[in-house]
Write a structure and sequence with these properties.
It is a single chain. By secondary structure, this protein is an alpha+beta fold. Strand 13 and strand 14 form a beta hairpin. The strands form six sheets. Strands 1-11-10-9-8-5 form a six-stranded mixed sheet, sandwiched between helices. The chain contains six helices and 17 strands.
């Protein structure tokens, strides 16, 4: 699996950031369909709906990818797969103890000054204060385990540093659903951060328009999220990482809902229109492929 960095954790201490990125990269690279690679069959397949219309259908299960991600993550030290906290289920949880120098703001009434200086230096819209305030408040008022290198140098005197032993907690969301699901996942991590259950988040989705599923499914990807200005809605320290298959092969097996691989079985017949060859897919459903 090809892994890309889409958004770094600018405010995370270097050791913490490096550790988290390494864990997620190792987990993603462990997802394979062959001995050495993650190869996808992107052949366009169809299905007859109950109304008689023939439409593209999903032959690769997203569950194959997400379940393997959760399992492989849980095998790493200090990590869990699917986790439920305060009634919210998410795909993974990383917990590490660090001895570091962290920063807290000396006078919290100065926090807006820091935020508006940050907005000005980075040429951001002033409306970003709505998402930056809960993030900065969580990092520099409620917690003291974050860095200030990404902040304007003129604001550094407003902070004091201290040796900290931090039990750092990271919530992970691995999203293969549509783009609306991606926004829900990011919002869920933001709420968990504001409620004090996690200290940062990781969000993973397709690095480009995924050919794993039909385009009609509108599965989320970073290009889709960027078009919708997703960064303006992030209210927690968040690392974003993308994934993509190592290659595509129309002779490769498909991803099964139960975690394995499967092949389409030819039924040696055509559909009533004479336009499609008929195959048996997973769960005995009839799959149509253009003749």
């Amino acid at each position: 699996m090809i892994v890309t960095m889409e958004r770094t954790g600018d405010f995370l201490l270097e050791e913490i950031s490096h550790d988290i990125i390494s864990i997620i990269s190792t987990t993603l690279e462990g997802i394979k369909t062959t001995e050495n690679a993650f190869v996808i069959n992107d052949k366009l397949c169809f299905k007859t709906q109950t109304n008689g219309n023939v439409t593209p259908c999903v032959t690769n299960s997203a569950t194959f990818i997400s379940s393997k991600f959760q399992h492989l993550l849980s095998e790493q030290r200090g990590c869990q797969g699917e986790t439920k906290v305060n009634g919210q289920a998410f795909d993974g949880f990383i917990q590490r103890s660090y001895n570091q120098v962290g920063y807290k703001i000396a006078n919290r009434s100065k926090l807006l000054e820091v935020i508006f200086d940050y907005i000005a230096v980075n040429n951001l819209p002033e409306s970003m204060v709505h998402t930056l305030f809960p993030k900065f408040y969580g990092m520099y008022v409620e917690r003291g385990c974050f860095d200030i290198k990404a902040l304007p140098f003129s604001t550094h005197s407003l902070f004091h540093e201290a040796e900290i032993t931090s039990n750092f907690r990271v919530g992970v969301e691995f999203e293969t659903g549509n783009v609306a699901s991606s926004f829900r996942a990011i919002n869920k991590l933001g709420v968990l951060f504001q409620q004090g259950f996690i200290d940062a988040g990781v969000f993973v989705t397709s690095s480009s328009r995924p050919r794993i599923w039909p385009t009609s499914n509108r599965n989320g990807s970073f290009p889709e999220l960027i078009n919708r200005n997703y960064e303006n809605q992030i209210s927690l320290p968040l690392i974003c990482m993308g994934f993509a298959p190592d290659s595509y092969d129309k002779n490769a097996p498909f991803l099964s809902r139960v975690g394995g691989l499967y092949e389409l079985e030819s039924l040696n017949k055509m559909d009533p229109t004479g336009l499609y060859d008929v195959y048996r897919g997973e769960n005995n459903e009839e799959i149509l492929i253009p003749a």
